[in-house]
Design brief:
Number of helices: 2
Helix content: 10-25%
Strand content: 25-35%
Distance between the termini: 16 Å
Shape: globular
Order of helices and strands: EHEEEEHEEE
CATH topology: 2,3-Dihydroxybiphenyl 1,2-Dioxygenase, domain 1
CATH class: Alpha Beta
Radius of gyration: 15 Å
Strand order of the largest sheet: 1-4-3-2
Number of strands: 8
Length: 121
Amino acid sequence: MPKIKSVGHVEIRVRDVVRSVQFYKKLLGLKHVVDSGDFHAFEVGDTHFCISKGRPKKLPPFDFTTDDLEALNVKLGTLGVHVSKIRKERRSGHRSFFFVDPDGHRVTVQSSHPHPMEEIR
């Protein structure tokens, strides 16, 4: 039977597309793979993180993962981005922090998943 492989797309709406493209491309270093004027996509592993022009709204929960949580936290803070302290999640065991993007989206960044992940039965 076919299985779901990964999350395909996550999309947020932003007021200023140019500002947000620069934020995610320059500050976070995401690979910019689609530029269609008011719609942009960034490659994050097997997932496309998309932004489009519109009124920001409450987001479904999503997060990014990184292999160097401390370094990314320090880098963003140094660049003037509002970042939280790193904390450990009791339920998942991940360590994480959040940052606030130019439109006020609160985005969580977690430590990478261990590989291979064990399947829950």
